[in-house]
Amino acid sequence: MNVQPNVMSQRCASRVYMALLADKWSLLIINALGGGPRRNGELVRSVEGISQKMLTQTLRTLEQLHVVLRTDLQTIPPHVSYELTPLGKSLRGEAVSFITWVEKHMPDLSSG
Fold first, then answer.
1. First-to-last CA distance in the chain?
2. FRET partner for 57 with CA separation of 20 to 30 A, picked from 12, 20, 33, 46?
3. What is the pLDDT of residues 41-56, one digit of tens each?
4. In Å, what is the CA distance from 23 to each residue of 56, 58, 62, 75, 111?
5. Sheet strand arrangement including 68-72
6. What is the pTM for the complete model shown?
7. 24: closest CA among 63, 61, 66?
């Protein structure tokens, strides 16, 4: 018997994935990678306020979830680039929708 994912159930692993992917830094990094491959320094400049430690940690998580692909450019000194996988590209569409919604509704969210 195959159990369907149910994010409302505390026992469902989908909650873990949702928490990792809906994290502020994850969404911003996924959005920043929408324009194509980026190197580490480019991401730090694009995602204002993120520390190098948090960027590295979030990129590793996204790589483990098969959302981001890390490519070693085989240079000296070492350089790597990051890009969205097909799975990551499909998630980016959802992230952009959410980001757009937040920006559009900022006045409504802050009044009250």
1. 48
2. 12
3. 999 999 999 999 999 9
4. 14, 9, 11, 32, 24
5. 38-39, 80-84, 68-72
6. 0.89
7. 61
